[in-house]
Amino acid sequence: MKVRLSQEHALSKRVGFVPKHFKNTSRVYIQDGKKLYIDYIEATNIGRGKFKDFLEAVHKEGFNLYSSSSSLFEKNH
Fold first, then answer.
1. What are the tens digits of pLDDT across the range 14-52?
2. Which residues make beta-bridge pairs with 43?
């Protein structure tokens, strides 16, 4: 079962998934302890350059990363 990752969770803070960098409307889930699913993620203005750091930190924590879409892209405002 997938559980939505709260931005207040200790793991979120370790990998940089915090309100300062990513909006609360982002939908990131954890399943089976080591699978991380990104259904939707949106960076704040401050967090624009932090997405790559987030992905690297998730990998260092040992998570397998899954996305609901076939490609990930940066949305410019």
1. 999 999 999 999 999 999 889 999 998 889 999 888 988
2. 22
